[in-house]
TrEMBL record:
Type I restriction modification DNA specificity domain location: 93-254, 310-455
Cross-referenced InterPro entries: Restrct_endonuc_typeI_TRD, Restrct_endonuc_typeI_TRD_sf, Type-I_RE_S_subunit
Origin species: Phocaeicola vulgatus
GO biological process, one term: DNA restriction-modification system
GO molecular function terms noted in the UniProt entry: DNA binding; endonuclease activity
Keywords carried by this UniProt record: DNA-binding, Endonuclease, Hydrolase, Nuclease, Restriction system
Protein name (record): Restriction endonuclease subunit S
Pfam families for this protein: Methylase_S
Family membership: Belongs to the type-I restriction system S methylase family.
Length: 460
């Protein structure tokens, strides 16, 4: 189940007036808008906010001839400026006032940066603050009551949340304050509107297409919003939150199931390499016989690590039953429509017409992602951050892969920075080898169990 798409469908129904029924007894949004305008004018008259230049030139009643969609008759189309005071920390205020000398974790008023604004939720800054006196000096950009915050520049452009106003905070660069003129609008409704695909489409549509996308305060003020009656706003918010809570439960259940399945897979692999997943057959040729037939000089390793293995099993080093291929740079072989995949430690990163490892090999990361074995069923080129392991005739390719899945390669990592492995450290790993016939039964059993678990995951 795509819960992210489900959330967006709920928001889409909400902002189209299709999530909850309309009530003819609700005060129309047009009347509500006039009340909000009156509050705005009062604030301007009292000198608490300034009228924007564009607002001063426009008529009292905005006209929306090309609205994004039709809304119920009790709704109206308006814009952010008609409902909210929008501002930011001025550039000179940041340069002159918010400096390394004025910002300290010991001050009283936390500052709010872009990293504190996430889509739908606020993250308090506990490391940076300015003094109460400085915040009062810059009152216009202070955060003293519940409002919306929006990131207006950078990677998180358009991310919007509600500032909870648990204590006084202050804007830092890159975050806009969107403060309601009155309490006659449900902040959560406005937030959900801006979180919807349509709301975000509006944000992206007015952002400047530069190396670092940005929004001006004027463009934020121009964002259109479909406004329902206040009572309907409350009903919409209540319904969204009820449905989102159910989705949260679905996601938590899915996360719990994924955890259980991950633990079960790990247990299955552990049972397999200790000879406890499938029954033994006394008629199977012992592994030692096959190993000696392949290499008459073969000497099994001490069985101290894997105790109590079944009769017929043997212990050897990885280098005794595999070939380990170093990777090479793909620069000279990479081509757009190559026949073979190019693998790094994390997966496919390109295509080539040449290969280094043959089909049935297992990839082990040399640097970076070292604990994510990948089984490749075709020839491939491995880059220099990945080893290719190919089993000899003593073991099945898939058995080698499943052993690698069960093994914690991070134990071999001796680096202090980026995780890394060496060919020698991998080659010295001890691996338990069952009789060949038992390997077949083990691989078949693991394949069946993992297929079932993956099918369960796909169904949720």
């Amino acid at each position: 189940m795509d819960t992210k798409a489900l959330r967006q469908k709920i928001l889409d129904l909400a902002i189209h007036g299709k999530l909850v029924p309309q009530d003819p007894n609700d005060e129309p949004a047009s009347v509500l808008l006039e009340r909000i305008k009156a509050e705005k004018e009062r604030l301007i008259k009292e000198g608490k906010i300034k009228r924007s230049k564009k607002s001063a030139k426009s008529s009292d009643t905005p006209h929306y001839e090309n609205v994004p969609f039709e809304v119920p008759s009790s709704w109206v189309w308006t814009n952010i400026e008609e409902l909210f005071f929008v501002t930011k920390l001025a550039g000179f205020e940041y340069t002159d006032c918010l400096t390394k000398d004025t910002i300290s974790s010991n001050n009283e008023v936390p500052i709010v940066r872009a990293q504190n604004v996430r889509m739908g939720y606020f993250v308090e800054n506990t490391n940076e603050a300015i003094s109460e006196a400085l915040s009062q000096q810059l009152e216009r950009s202070a955060l003293t009551k519940k409002c919306l915050l929006m990131t207006f520049i950078g990677a998180g452009i358009g991310d919007t949340c509600i500032f909870p106003a648990l204590k006084r905070c202050h804007l830092a660069p890159n975050v806009a304050k969107i403060e309601p003129y009155s309490n006659k609008i449900d902040l959560k409704y406005a937030l959900y509107y801006l979180m919807s695909d349509l709301g975000q489409l509006g944000v992206r549509g007015i952002s400047k297409s530069t190396a670092q996308p940005s929004l001006s305060m004027a463009t934020i003020r121009s964002l259109e919003i479909a406004l329902p009656p206040l009572a309907e706003q409350h009903r919409i918010v209540a319904e969204i939150e009820k449905l989102f809570e159910l989705i949260d439960q679905i996601e938590q259940g899915k996360a719990d199931l994924q955890t259980i399945i991950k633990q079960t897979k790990s247990k299955i692999l552990d049972l397999a390499i200790h000879g406890k997943l499938v029954p033994q057959d006394p008629n199977d040729e012992p592994a030692i016989e096959l190993l000696k037939r392949i290499n008459p000089d073969f000497t099994p390793c001490d069985n101290g690590h894997y105790t109590q293995l079944p009769e017929g099993w043997a212990i050897c080093k990885m280098k005794q039953i595999t070939s380990i291929t170093n990777g090479k740079s793909q620069k000279n072989v990479e081509t757009l429509n190559g026949i073979y995949p190019i693998y790094g430690s994390g997966g496919v990163i390109g295509r080539a017409n040449q290969y280094l490892c043959i089909a049935g090999s297992t990839i082990i990361g040399r640097k970076g992602t070292i604990n994510n074995p990948i089984f490749v069923e075709e020839h491939f080129w491995n880059v220099d951050t990945a080893f290719g392991l190919k089993a000899n005739d003593a073991i099945l390719d898939k058995y080698l892969y499943y052993f690698c899945l069960s093994f914690d390669f991070s134990k071999l990592d001796k680096s202090t920075a980026m995780p890394s492995l060496t060919k020698t450290s991998i080659g010295n790993v001890l691996i338990p080898i069952p009789p060949h016939k038992e390997q077949e039964r083990i691989v078949a059993k693991i394949d069946m169990v993992l297929d079932t678990m993956n099918e369960i995951l796909r169904a949720v």
